[in-house]
């Protein structure tokens, strides 16, 4: 049967079967905004009518710059299901990146939170395609912007039913841009088909097992790669939602979990590390309704994984993915075989991203494009394919040409290993691995071991040009107590050969980050080069 | 990304990620045949080479007439993944149906179990397209068949790797025929895409939650609508399998569950009713590894559902589907809302098939094609759509024209209701509902209530022509103890108005069934007409 896999169908399922499930938003006054899928649906229909009336054509895009709240949720469906596309923008991007991507995507309407008014006012004069600004609120604050209205006025008065078009499943439903750690952001355009399939997949017991009984708290921003696809998946399965608005501090997150009986929460690993500490300091804190936690971007420390598993009975499921993959490809799955291993080994394996989910495929290729052994040691570039992986960068033929193999796999730029259990581990970025005298040193493995030292809070390892060895590692370290370079070196020697040890230890409490909170190794490399040149340094120490 | 959803990818996932999981087959000598996905894969590759070598073109079909065993499993993948199609045939069909469908599907090779040699020998002279017979064994028994070989010889000596073609996801992977209760069997052709999606869906926690940890025992025949798609889904998720061969009696099923730690078993409701009794009579029986049970075709009695839920801790999940839907569309899901109801109400609701799974849609339409209220009472024809529902009958334009609406929904021919919880119930077949004086009487509801009487084993209600009321109900009853017509009438009056009561009660222990074990109402109607004509009967009682 020619049945197109569209987001419209996933939304209709929520409304028809779970119409009274709630979408709850944390408000700035401390209370909650609550409404149901049926309520949301009526407003999504109104939004679609408003876009028709505004004159937005099929295929046109709207920008959204917002925290996680119910109006943002409505924007996940109104434009896409009516044949347009949502461009989720990250307000933390540098202004020049924001203007570049909004112009490149030719966004015609920009929806934004009042909190980001300054940013919007700064970039507005440079924007070439945006004709209309819509504040995601009930009124418009004082502003110099032209053509501005508020969201409630924008959708007011329209019909609460809508005749959705029969879209081809390959139609674009949204676009996100990479955060641009290696150059200008690049656009990843998503199809209805891709997000339908990934959303369905999240319901699999061996993936995240999203069900209608779940109450999902996406702490991860909804602008960050489809909010890790959770808003789409939870809707498909009829889950309830708790949307934090701008309230993503630990106290607020704990309160939302407790007050709204949250079962699934999703956030970067640091939130969970901090939450474990927060609970120690706040005996009244209660996250007992949590059933499982989704995280990604990097590995949480094993001790934290273990604590959530054993003490809080809420396993942390780690995912691996990327903007180009909608984002999810791989996640922790304790297979039968792994469950039969000693407990310590199981926890060790849980720090790896794990196994590809159904519908996603991964492979490792060395520099010559040859397959790499699955022995947990040999490494190669991680290449992927899936219906929810892009097949080109939007309007960037050169970047596209560099990023796909001849046989159609996406080259992630990540270096990984696969072990005998089939578990993928990400050991580095192609750009970050350190080529020292013909051998490779993983910056990520070094970082993890430095951070494992009790006095270290953060560590970032970069490769620096070396006159003799081509490249050598240098580490930036942020500590919470006095610790000497010698102490850290001894710590590292427990695990690595001597030639892996960083040539320089630079102590600092100000490690630069990108707009999505990753350490900015590009900046660090450039800072180092500007300040010191190459290795070996002439002065004894770089500090 | 242009990533075709093919069974080849699901098979590769099992081999790459779960290559050492086992497929276990019960043998006739009482032992088990055991091998892994990796082993199976090598033989599937050999089979594909053998089909190449035989000269089978892409798109050609092979017939398979077999019980559930590992060679049958290999036939699920070898032909389909190499671009051919498997026609699963039901050996219980009448000979003339078998010859009709094998000729219509133009099957060129017929694989069959030695147990069905007689059938094959009988139909062989009539078959116009079959060129080669392959016995699913190590040798060929004495036979008059021409061009016959055994499976092991057929695949022997070929390479154990195969370069699978890049198939379009809409390529046919298999075909099944309806069992023909209402005329000649009709062919339902399945695409790789449809079975990929349904297989993925079975992993959803809210569907069946198939995982790699499961050990799946399909008692349901693998020729019966893709073995309810379990072989495909379990492979996708890397589950283990226990295949019963011809050993589907209670004693054998219980032994396989106990000996192989089966977690998921699938069979028609009568097996589970009988299993509950079997356990009472055999204190040493042990089905404690069972985690959940899949059933379909009709509702198990509520008392049995309850017993499995409470006593055996293995909920019976009831599905609704059909040959035309691969087959699965709807299953029991105790939603949050339902779990808050009184326990009795929950069990009552569990006797209904339940909610459509993600990717499947159902609607009810009355005789004028208008929507029907979702009040649990109003009924209409169940119409469905999904990527795994067919959009035509193979080579039957007239049947196709009758079976689809103008807007592309499949008309199931079932009459259903949907209640306030969204639960679908199937109350009758369009052909079986009894039109009495302008009102409808559900034959299924009457049957269920008659069977609910403790002295009744089976009951089938048919509509019979009536001189005044157009149609009136007549019931065929099989009892396990003396029970009078008056006693049954009183029993029915507890629940139904007087005009629903059957005009005739015919006591018999020989109710005719179709080849798939359904009661054959077509035969019953014809038997009644031949014997008695129309109602009211001239003689006082029909018996």
From TrEMBL, chains A, B:
<dbReference type="InterPro" id="IPR042099">
    <property type="entry name" value="ANL_N_sf"/>
</dbReference>
<dbReference type="GO" id="GO:0016874">
    <property type="term" value="F:ligase activity"/>
</dbReference>
<dbReference type="Pfam" id="PF00501">
    <property type="entry name" value="AMP-binding"/>
</dbReference>
<dbReference type="Pfam" id="PF13193">
    <property type="entry name" value="AMP-binding_C"/>
</dbReference>
<keyword id="KW-0436">Ligase</keyword>
<dbReference type="GO" id="GO:0006631">
    <property type="term" value="P:fatty acid metabolic process"/>
</dbReference>
<dbReference type="InterPro" id="IPR020845">
    <property type="entry name" value="AMP-binding_CS"/>
</dbReference>
<feature type="domain" description="AMP-binding enzyme C-terminal">
    <location>
        <begin position="445"/>
        <end position="518"/>
    </location>
</feature>
<comment type="similarity">
    <text>Belongs to the ATP-dependent AMP-binding enzyme family.</text>
</comment>
<keyword id="KW-0276">Fatty acid metabolism</keyword>
<keyword id="KW-0443">Lipid metabolism</keyword>
<dbReference type="InterPro" id="IPR025110">
    <property type="entry name" value="AMP-bd_C"/>
</dbReference>
<protein>
    <submittedName>
        <fullName>Acyl-CoA synthetase</fullName>
        <ecNumber>6.2.1.-</ecNumber>
    </submittedName>
</protein>
<keyword id="KW-0614">Plasmid</keyword>
<dbReference type="InterPro" id="IPR045851">
    <property type="entry name" value="AMP-bd_C_sf"/>
</dbReference>
<dbReference type="InterPro" id="IPR000873">
    <property type="entry name" value="AMP-dep_synth/lig_dom"/>
</dbReference>
<feature type="domain" description="AMP-dependent synthetase/ligase">
    <location>
        <begin position="12"/>
        <end position="394"/>
    </location>
</feature>
